[in-house]
Amino acid sequence: MNYLNGVSIVEILHNIEKMKLNIVSNFEHTIAQNYSIEGDDKTKNILKNFQNPFIFRDFPIYFLKFVGSLPIFKKEDKAYVRLMQHYYGLATSRQLQNNNLPALHSAVAIIEHHFEDNIIRDIDNRNRKFITDAIRYSQVIKDDDIQHYSIYEEGFSNQEETCVKVFIIPKENLCTFFEARSEIQKTLIQPYEKKYQKYMKQLFELVKGNFSEENSLKNENDLENIFIDGSFF
Hints:
About 45% of the residues lie in helices and about 15% in strands. With about 230 residues, it is α+β, with helices and mostly antiparallel strands.
């Protein structure tokens, strides 16, 4: 093994990589915290007094909700990717703007895919990276590697609306979460959704309108299909 001043070259490179990732993470967190869009200043204040995460039986539950279905993998369309990054980044940043807790060292994200219809879909075709990146940039989790982050996914059909709901909790509390899921939904989530549903739809419309003007998608209808139409499955 090669050494430099008594230190392994491999260890030096590893530390440099960790430093680079930390710098990038802090930079991206700054971007996420400063996501903005014309017309959002008024609606941003709606959540200023809302505390996210919820505290349930002494552990935190971060809750995120996104309008429409989670998009599929479509890396070749750059405008599409920018739209997705901005919407999920902005929606996450706004919903977590009052979080002051340290990052979870070992976390699990429970991702619920809700669909109004009963069409058969493959969940693995959905690009959850937009959600994971937005969570990481907001520093809810320490990192998104396998040592610090896990994902559990479920799909539900015949729901009231098409949306994506995400719960981020400490991994050690996963069993408690599922045991008390009905109670959490009734006492914490439903009141939140009732109060802020209008805001989330307004935010979606602002992002969609902004990108339809500033970015040329291959097909303008993609703006609807990406989130609502269900043609991407």
